From TrEMBL:
InterPro entries: AtsK-like, TauD-like_sf, TauD/TfdA-like. It comes from the Bacteria. Belongs to the TfdA dioxygenase family. GO terms for biological process: sulfur compound metabolic process. The keyword Lipid metabolism does not apply. It comes from Phenylobacterium haematophilum. NCBIfam families: PRK09553.1. Keywords: Dioxygenase, Iron, Metal-binding, Oxidoreductase. This is Taurine dioxygenase. Residues 6-271 form the TauD/TfdA-like domain. Its cofactor is Fe(2+).
Length: 292
């Protein structure tokens, strides 16, 4: 722990953690320190980490049960991980702002992404702090949004004609759609660990706001989708070989910059399941007490 160092990358979001070798056993004290930095900075980065898929999986599993993606190919040695392999014959359709896997009842609390192969330049990832974006809204608008729920839809993020769906195959995609019907989540989510509120809608999976007419819903969602992109909420990470990003999926959105084709970019991702989103005003009794 003597060499453990956390350096903020912006005043709002992002920090670099140094003095950690994730290929070595991670003690409980070190795990706690990493988690505290993760909660404070929303996304933390580690550079020059030479880990195997099994070590990647096992580190992620220290934070909770892992989610297996229904469409992306798994890593053979550790099938709980999946592979993002983009090149000229498999271009990405991940270049939109999104929060991971909000199409399930208990969206991930975190994702851990490891750079396996990088293009000569480009391929950065950008994260936005949803708490900061929420706090920048007017109090009256925040109050209005706090009573709303939104529909999150797998089929919006992975349409039949999309690149990921085509790569997975028609049968696998149809099965995934059938197994993932639309779900409702609060527009404003109370973080289960910090008790802070943040926006919980994203362009990738949020289709509409329940109870509003489509034009009303579209107007509000489009405004929020644009709002979260303001530079003061963002950190942009330039990947280096064997770097890792570990982000709090409950309070961030991210965007994979698609500027590197025809070069290739390969990343492995572990996804840690979370709990059911809630807002403090409508939380079950035990959760409401924790949020206050």
């Amino acid at each position: 722990m003597a060499q453990f160092k956390v350096t903020p990358l912006t005043p709002t979001i992002g920090a670099l953690i140094e003095g950690v070798d994730l290929a070595q056993p991670v003690s409980d004290d070190l795990l706690h320190a990493i988690r505290q930095a993760f909660l404070k900075h929303q996304v933390v980065f580690f550079e020059d980490q030479h880990i195997t898929p099994v070590q990647h999986r096992d580190f992620a599993a220290r934070f909770g049960a892992l989610h297996t993606h229904p469409l992306y190919p798994g890593v053979p040695e550790a099938p709980e991980l999946f592979i993002l392999d983009n090149h000229k014959d498999n271009p990405t359709d991940n270049d939109s702002w999104h929060t991971d896997v909000t199409f399930i009842e208990t969206p991930p609390m975190a994702s851990i992404l490891y750079a396996k192969l990088l293009p000569p330049s480009g391929g950065d990832t950008i994260w936005s702090n949803s708490k900061a974006a929420y706090e920048a809204l007017s109090p009256a608008f925040r109050e209005f949004l706090s009573g709303l729920d939104a529909v999150h839809d797998f089929a919006r993020g992975f349409p039949t004609r999309g690149i990921v769906a085509k790569g997975a195959g028609e049968d696998k995609h149809a099965k995934a759609v059938a197994e993932h019907p639309p779900v409702l989540h609060p527009v404003i989510r109370t973080h289960p660990e910090t008790g802070e509120d943040g926006l919980f809608v994203n362009f990738g999976f949020t289709d509409r706001i329940k109870g509003l007419r489509r034009k009303e819903s579209d107007a509000i969602l489009n405004m929020l989708f644009e709002h979260i992109q303001k530079p003061e909420f963002l950190v942009r990470w330039r990947w280096s070989p064997n770097a890792i990003a570990f982000w709090d999926n409950r309070v961030t959105q991210h965007y994979a910059v698609n500027d590197y084709l025809p070069h290739r970019r390969i990343m492995n991702r572990a996804t840690v399941l979370g709990d059911r989103p809630y807002h403090r005003s409508r939380a079950p009794a035990g959760l409401k007490a924790a949020a206050e």
